[in-house]
Structures are given as C-alpha cells and as structure tokens.
Amino acid sequence: MLFLFLDSHIHYMEPQNDTKILEFLLLGLSEEQELQPLIFGLFLSMYLITVFGNLFIILAVNSDPHLHTPMYFFLSNLSFVDICFTSTTIPKMLQNMRTQSKVLTYEGCITQMYFFILFAVLDMFLLTVMAYDRFVAICHPLHYMVIMNPRLCGLLVLVSWMMSALNSLLQSVMVLRLSFCTDLEIPHFFCEINQLIQLACSDMFLNEIVMYFAAAILGGGSFTGILYSYSKIVSSIQRISSAQGKYKAFSTCASHLSVVSLFYCTCLGVYLSSAATHSSHSSAIASVMYTVVTPMLNPFIYSLRNKDIKRALERVISKAGITLFWG
Predict the structure, then answer these.
(1) Rounded mean pLDDT, 56-61
(2) What pLDDT score was predicted for residue 19?
(3) Angstrom distances, CA of residue 140 to CA of 34, 135, 144, 197, 236
(4) Closest Cα to residue 159, out of 115, 125, 205?
(5) Angle separating helix axes 294-305 and 243-277, nearest 10 degrees
(6) What is the pLDDT of residues 204-245, one digit of tens each?
(7) Which label site among 52, 100, 114, 136 has the fewest CB atoms less than 10 Å from its CB?
(8) pLDDT exceeds cutoff 60 at 82
(9) Mean pLDDT highest for which of 94-108, 112-126, 225-239, 246-260?
(10) Tell me, what's the pLDDT at 120?
(11) Distance between CA atoms of 207 and 201, rounded to whole angstroms?
C-alpha cells in the first residue's frame, strides 16, 4: 500500500528543468578505494552482530515463560525494531560497495528515508514506554500488574507504531513535493532527509519547519517523558531505607538507563558535531554511532546487566547447540 502511494506521487515529480529524477548518488563514508574493504568488513560484521544479537534476545524472551512480563515484551519489540532499523540502511550500503556503485534510485531513496524515519522514531517511543514501565514497577509496585496489563502494553506498542508511521508518511510526502536539479550527490551512506532537502531547487522552508517541528515534538516529548519517569524513580529509590533495597530497585532499570543514555548521547553528539563543523562528511561518520553502533550494543547491555536474560540466552544457545550437534 505504501509503495503504491509513494509511486503514484513519484510519477508526477518533475524537477524544475523538466528532467525526471531517476537516481541519487550516495557518496558513503569515504571515497578512498583502499579503505573500502575495511569499511565493508566492519559494517558487515556489525550488521551480523546486530541481527543475531537482537534475534537471540527475541528468542530468549519468547522461549522463557519467566520473561513473559511487560518489561521483556517491550524489550523484544525494541530488538525487532533495531533489526529493522539497521536493515534499512546497511544492506544497501554493502551492496553498493560490493558492486562499486553509488546509485540509489529516486523511489528507493524515498522508500529508504520513510522506513529509516519510521524505525528511528519507533526506537524513541519504545524507550519512552520502557521508562514508563520501570516507573510503574518501582513507584507503584503493588499495582504494577494491574496497571501494566497485557491490553495496555499492546496498546502502547500499537500507538507507537501508528504515530511513527504517520510522522514518517508526513515527512516523505513533504519531500515528494520538492523539485531537484542536477546536483544529486548525497554525502552520506543512506538517504538522510536533511541531506536530501538540501539538494532541492524549490523552496524548502516548509519542509524544514515540518522536520524540525516533528523532531522537537516527538524527540523532545519522548526525552521529556523519560526524564520525568527517571526523576520519579530516583525520588522513590531515595526513600527506600535499606541499601540492598536501593540496589535492587536501581538494578531493575540499569540496563534500560544505559541504552537510553547511549541512544540520546550519540544522537546529541551527532547534532552538535554537525552544527559545529558544518561538514556533511563528519556528520555522516558521527551518525554511525546511533544508526549502527547503538542497535549493535543493546543486546550486549541487556544480556550482561540482566541475569534473567543471561540465563534465558544460555538455554537458547544450549538448545541450539544440541540441535546442531544431533542434526
């Protein structure tokens, strides 16, 4: 449905010089040929680690009845989104490097941009929902299972998907109205919306307003929700009398807090670095942190800091080893 909708708009997209846009050129992270094998191997390794690491988290949560709780339900959704997030950009980048081609069709660029925005915003929403889950667990432990019932958990994930999809669709439709000239080189390894808008020949003021307004409302709202949840959590933990009780309460949200810090610090770092250097190339390199590195590290953070996940992963790997041995 999405592809048909985008295609119907793309059909009528004509640049100002009446030449139909057929393709963009993704310049990637480096144009030095001797670095291409190293970059290819590095990104392929990170992609495989991300996919299998998050896949193991999903399998562990689904296979262990003790992990059928709201916290791990949200974690398995986050792992699925992280797989999709990295799959939106890295496979195309690896394909281009393997074929020594920088080409990305106009339709492919718009589609990649749509799904990249979708999964990036969905990541933020799920981290916010997980912060709310920890807030209820620590601040209202006696009513936790009543408040965080399966219906509410499913509804929170569904609303997150819907809001992310609508925002992504709005951003894509706004780009479809733009006209482009002859300079169609994108100094990035994927079709990033800000870089794409900068290539437009037509007036892009409205696009920038919508883009920054959505970033402020969705990103700012998400981050504010997380800060509010953790301010209440810290206040609640401080009221616990025993040191062991404080440690136990804090340990339940330590993994999530680590993931939140990593995601938002890298996003902020990318924004500040691009604003300071005004270099598209530096911004592309910095964006690797939140587009590739963060989804790769999430499974390690949860498996290393969470004993339940660690035990479940050991059982999954053990069963897989036995199956392979006897297979």
Answers:
(1) 92
(2) 43
(3) 57, 8, 6, 46, 10
(4) 125
(5) 170
(6) 889 989 998 998 899 889 999 999 999 999 999 888 888 887
(7) 100
(8) yes
(9) 112-126
(10) 94
(11) 13
Decide: 197 and 33 in contact? Cβ < 8 Å.
Answer: no
- For the residues of 26-49, what is the DSSP string, one character each? E--S---GGGHHHHHHHHHHHHHH
Strands 103-105 and 23-26: antiparallel
Residue where the block lists tokens 């953790």: 230
Which residues lie below 8 Å from residue 228, measured CB to CB, with a gap of 6+? Answer: none
What's the pLDDT score for residue 182?
75
Please, what sign has the CA dihedral across residues 40, 44, 50, 53? negative
Q: Is the dihedral of CA 241, 247, 248, 254 positive or negative?
A: positive
CB 291 within 8 A of CB 85: yes
Distance separating alpha carbons of residues 35 and 216, to the nearest angstrom: 37
Provide mean pLDDT across the span 241-263.
Answer: 82
Residue 104 pairs in a beta bridge with 24
Contact in structure between 126 and 153 (CB atoms under 8 Å):
no
